[in-house]
Structure formats: structure tokens, C-alpha cells
């Protein structure tokens, strides 16, 4: 009986040790990622984007450029195969589909809160408290890859991979609950771009239909 008790105690102790070691590794990875994200106050790069379904079939591919100024200001411009511009001005999120000459505008906070974009655009994101983080081993010393899953039940993604080359953000891969994945690769990265004060101000062209979803949210709140 004493032998069985001692064996059980060793197994239990080992289990707790492995658990705490795992939590420690996750915390280290989260702090490391937090530091890299905190270093990005502004950012500019070109991108290619590819969306695949659960069978790994390509659904869509596009390219363009991305500009970011924290907090909550960015411009995502698709040049090919269709022209689209998504602009966050700090308060509103504007989506301009040039091919159909239509603009959708919504409140920025409501649009970003549970999305991967919040990690890059908000002034401060608490990676340690809000996400489960693991660092994935890489063969290249300068490459750091992090895997994230949100602790929030209403998160719009299942898994997020973030890749850095040194301090440069070079890739994102988002997987949702339906098995669809989006891979974004960045090039020509600039971590110190200079933007004019009004660079992220969006002015709707005359004659373009504007669908204002902010009014719908306000009306629903009043009701």
C-alpha cells in the first residue's frame, strides 16, 4: 500500500510539474509576442492574400498594400483582381468596393473587438490575459512563429499564426471554425513610415451609395 501511495504521489507531482512547465512556456511565448507587437506603432507593407476552404481548395487570391498607425487607424487596399479599400479612421470602419461603387460604414470598435485585426490595430492588447499562446520552432534563427487562440467564447477565429522575421511582421494565417483559412504574406515591410495627420481620413466620393450600419446599431440600441 505504501509503495502504491508513493507511486501515485510521484505521478501526481510529475503531472503538476508538467502542467506548470507548460503554463510557464505559454506565458513566456505570450510575453515575447507582446513585446514584438508593442514595437509596432506604425507599419507599411505590400501583401498577397490567399483564402482556402476546408479541403485546401483556393477560393480567392488577391494583392495590395497595408498601412497602419496605432491606435485604430489603418488602410487595407486590394488592387487585384478587384479594387477594394478598407479604412479605419479611429472611430469608423469604411469599406469601399469600387467595382460596384458602394460604401459600407460601421462603428470601428464593434467591428474589431473579436477579430484578429484587433491584435495589430488597438492601442493595447493584453496578449497574456486574452490569448493562449505557443511559440512554434523554426529552422531559421531570425524567424519567430506564434500560434494564438482566443480565450473569448465569441471569437471569430479558431487559430491565428503570426510570423516575424526579426521585428518585421511577415505573415498571418487565420483559421476559422468552419475549416477555412486565410494566409497573408507581407513584403517590403517598413516599420517607421511617416503618415500625414489626415492620411487615414476617409471621404466618400460623390455619387457613391453609402450604407450606414452605425444608424442601424443605434436604432436597435434605442429599441
Automatic annotation (TrEMBL):
Family of this protein: Belongs to the LolA family.
InterPro entries listed in its UniProt record: LolA/LolB/LppX, OM_lipoprot_carrier_LolA-like, OM_lipoprot_carrier_LolA_Pbac
Function description: Participates in the translocation of lipoproteins from the inner membrane to the outer membrane. Only forms a complex with a lipoprotein if the residue after the N-terminal Cys is not an aspartate (The Asp acts as a targeting signal to indicate that the lipoprotein should stay in the inner membrane).
Gene Ontology biological process terms in this record: lipoprotein localization to outer membrane; lipoprotein transport
Compartments in which it is found: Periplasm
Main location: periplasm
Keywords: Chaperone, Lipoprotein, Periplasm, Protein transport, Signal, Transport
Protein name (record): Outer-membrane lipoprotein carrier protein
GO cellular component: outer membrane-bounded periplasmic space
PANTHER family listed in its UniProt record: OUTER-MEMBRANE LIPOPROTEIN CARRIER PROTEIN
Any single Pfam family the record assigns to this protein: LolA
Signal peptide: 1-27
Subunit (UniProt): Monomer.
Domain of life: Bacteria
Species, as recorded: Kangiella spongicola
Parts of the chain that traverse the membrane: none
Amino acid at each position: 500500500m505504501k509503495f502504491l501511495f508513493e507511486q501515485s504521489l510521484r505521478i501526481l507531482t510529475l503531472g503538476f510539474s508538467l502542467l506548470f512547465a507548460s503554463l510557464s512556456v505559454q506565458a513566456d511565448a505570450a510575453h515575447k509576442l507582446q513585446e514584438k507587437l508593442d514595437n509596432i506603432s506604425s507599419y507599411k507593407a505590400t501583401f498577397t492574400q490567399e483564402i482556402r476552404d476546408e479541403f485546401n481548395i483556393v477560393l480567392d487570391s488577391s494583392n495590395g498594400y497595408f498601412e497602419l498607425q496605432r491606435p485604430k487607424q489603418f488602410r487595407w487596399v486590394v488592387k487585384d483582381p478587384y479594387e477594394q479599400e478598407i479604412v479605419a479612421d479611429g472611430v469608423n470602419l469604411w469599406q469601399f468596393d469600387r467595382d460596384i461603387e458602394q460604401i459600407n460604414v460601421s462603428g470601428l470598435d464593434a467591428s474589431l473587438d473579436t477579430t484578429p485585426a484587433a491584435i495589430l490595430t488597438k492601442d493595447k492588447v493584453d496578449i497574456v490575459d486574452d490569448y493562449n499562446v505557443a511559440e512554434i520552432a523554426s529552422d531559421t534563427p531570425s524567424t519567430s512563429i506564434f500560434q494564438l487562440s482566443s480565450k473569448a467564447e465569441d471569437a471569430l477565429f479558431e487559430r491565428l499564426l503570426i510570423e516575424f522575421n526579426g521585428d518585421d511582421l511577415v505573415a498571418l494565417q487565420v483559421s476559422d471554425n468552419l475549416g477555412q483559412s486565410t494566409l497573408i504574406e507581407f513584403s517590403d515591410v517598413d516599420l517607421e513610415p511617416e503618415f500625414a495627420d489626415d492620411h487615414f481620413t476617409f471621404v466618400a466620393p460623390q455619387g457613391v451609395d453609402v450604407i450606414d450600419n452605425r444608424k442601424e446599431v443605434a436604432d436597435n440600441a434605442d429599441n
